[in-house]
Amino acid sequence: MSLSVPAPLTLAATASASLLLACSPLMAADGQTPELDWMAGHWTSTDGDPLIEEIWSDGDGGLLLGVNRTQVGGRAVGFEFLRIEVSDEQTRYCAQPGGGAATCFALTEHSDHHVRFENPDHDFPQVIQYRREGDRLSATISDTSGEQAMRFVWQRVTD
């Protein structure tokens, strides 16, 4: 015995599934895999103390690896292991402050030199954004409303 589904139900189910996939926070907003090699390099703050650095690999193999180090008075006081996992199915940013357990953030938007990740279930930050302008890289961490925010600006380190 075969079961037939009325056409309007099939169309509604297809439309609902398409909407869910298009709005999924695990996929790029435009359905494309983001190109994030613009983040690669050694970046350092220029404001003096504390000295904050981020170093990012390129995205070969769908994985950007990063490390963040904060120094005060020439002494390391904090570090973080970072990674951005890029695939056709999902892109996510994972941070491991002090080398601890990873907290991951789903890609929600990207453009040529901007990327935004969100995890509304995390206490703080809930949003992490990176932007590149010439030889400057900035990161903003915030809550979802943007009311609580911190911005970091780095200059590219040249050999």
Protein architecture, described:
It is a single chain. With 159 residues, the chain is mainly beta. The protein has 1 helix and 10 strands, in the order H-E-E-E-E-E-E-E-E-E-E. It has a 10-stranded antiparallel β-barrel with strand order 1-2-3-4-5-6-7-8-9-10. A hairpin with a 4-residue loop joins strand 4 and strand 5 (91-97). The longest helix has 17 residues, at 7-23.
Terminal CA distance reads 73 Å
SSE succession: HEEEEEEEEEE
The shape, in one word, is globular
Total beta strand runs: 10
- Measured by DSSP, the beta-strand proportion falls in over 45%
Query: Radius of gyration, Cα only, in angstroms?
Result: 19 Å
User: What structural class results from the helix and strand content?
Assistant: mainly beta
The pLDDT mean sits at 84
Q: Can you give the helix content as a percent range?
A: 10-25%
- How many DSSP helices? 1
Order of neighbouring strands in the sheet with most strands: 1-2-3-4-5-6-7-8-9-10
The unreliable regions are 1-30
Largest sheet: 10 strands, antiparallel, barrel
Oligomeric status:
single chain
